[in-house]
C-alpha cells in the first residue's frame, strides 16, 4: 500500500466525523445552552460556547490523528527471530 499521509481514507473519514460532531455540538449549544444573564449577553454566551466547543473538538481530533498516524507508520518495527530446529 503506498504512503498516503494526510489523505489516508481513515484519516479523512475521522476528520469528517469530528467536524460533524463539532457542528452538531455547536447547534445544540446555541439552542439549549446559550442564555442571556445580567453579566453576559446571549451573543457573548454563544461566542464563548463556540470557542470552547471548537477548541475541544480540535484538541480531540489532533490527539486522535496523531495516534492514528502513528499506527500507520510505527517507529519500531517488530523483529521476528527464526529458531533453528
UniProtKB/TrEMBL annotation:
<keyword id="KW-0406">Ion transport</keyword>
<keyword id="KW-1133">Transmembrane helix</keyword>
<keyword id="KW-0375">Hydrogen ion transport</keyword>
<protein>
    <submittedName>
        <fullName>Hydrogen-transporting ATP synthase</fullName>
    </submittedName>
</protein>
<dbReference type="Pfam" id="PF05493">
    <property type="entry name" value="ATP_synt_H"/>
</dbReference>
<dbReference type="InterPro" id="IPR008389">
    <property type="entry name" value="ATPase_V0-cplx_e1/e2_su"/>
</dbReference>
<feature type="transmembrane region" description="Helical">
    <location>
        <begin position="16"/>
        <end position="36"/>
    </location>
</feature>
<dbReference type="GO" id="GO:0033179">
    <property type="term" value="C:proton-transporting V-type ATPase, V0 domain"/>
</dbReference>
<keyword id="KW-0812">Transmembrane</keyword>
<keyword id="KW-0472">Membrane</keyword>
<keyword id="KW-0813">Transport</keyword>
<comment type="similarity">
    <text>Belongs to the V-ATPase e1/e2 subunit family.</text>
</comment>
<feature type="transmembrane region" description="Helical">
    <location>
        <begin position="48"/>
        <end position="70"/>
    </location>
</feature>
<dbReference type="GO" id="GO:0046961">
    <property type="term" value="F:proton-transporting ATPase activity, rotational mechanism"/>
</dbReference>
Amino acid at each position: 500500500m503506498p504512503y498516503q499521509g494526510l489523505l489516508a481514507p481513515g484519516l479523512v473519514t475521522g476528520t469528517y466525523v469530528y467536524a460533524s460532531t463539532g457542528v452538531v455540538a455547536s447547534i445544540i449549544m446555541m439552542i439549549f445552552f446559550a442564555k442571556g444573564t445580567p453579566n453576559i449577553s446571549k451573543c457573548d454566551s454563544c461566542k464563548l460556547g463556540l470557542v470552547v466547543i471548537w477548541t475541544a473538538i480540535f484538541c480531540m481530533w489532533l490527539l486522535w490523528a496523531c495516534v492514528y498516524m502513528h499506527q500507520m507508520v510505527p517507529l519500531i518495527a517488530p523483529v521476528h527471530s527464526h529458531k533453528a530446529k
